[in-house]
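Weekly modeling sync, notes
Attendees: S.R. (lead), two postdocs, one rotation student

Agenda item 3: backlog of single-chain predictions. S.R. asked that every request posted to the team notebook include the full sequence so nobody has to chase files. The rotation student volunteered to paste the first one in as an example of the format we agreed on. Action items at the bottom.

Example entry:
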Amino acid sequence: MHRSNRYPITAQDAATQAAALVNCPRFMRDVGSHCDLRPPIAPAADPTPYPRGESRKRRRRIAALCAAAGCIGIGAAVLAGDDTPRRADPPMTMDRLWRAVCIVESGNDPRAVGDDGLAVGIAQIQPIMVRECNRILGRDVFTLADRTDPRLSRLMFDTFTRHYGPGKSAEWITRAWNGGPGWESKPPHVLARTAEYWRRVRAAL
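Predicted structure, as returned to the notebook:
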């Protein structure tokens, strides 16, 4: 009997495997250890010593400047000496990155088609990416039709990032998804395109 070399991934298998990858501590450590996307937090207090009363005067000057600029709330907080640190951003995960990619690529539309029909699905996956994922896995796991299934698209994303992502930043992973794993050495227009793509993905995080 003829046996197909296509691994029979069902929709449930895809969802289970994708969830397993995201929840695997070793996988997240490999690709997420350098994914600190949080903006720098300003120090809670100015360490510079001021003479008695000078700190209060300085706060008043800052508050006046903020008020003049229309930043009444900030000025009031400065005047009141509100040094409460900002709420930390949620930790970076592949799930967050995947959701941001889908927002940028298709607006979360699994039926989206772009790039003259080459890019299909929620992540706008092109045929070359399908072939690359199958090459990584060493067998024909995915077909072009799988791009219309968000769960199988996610599994392709996980396959790609699991292979190329360990030790890389979220920016590197995102730009590789857009421009290929060798994006760093590609022509300037590709570097510019991947940089803009990363800017949009980061804004969607």
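Discussion: group reviewed the output briefly. The beta strands are 113-114, 119-120.
Action items: rotation student to repeat for the remaining queue; S.R. to check formatting next week.
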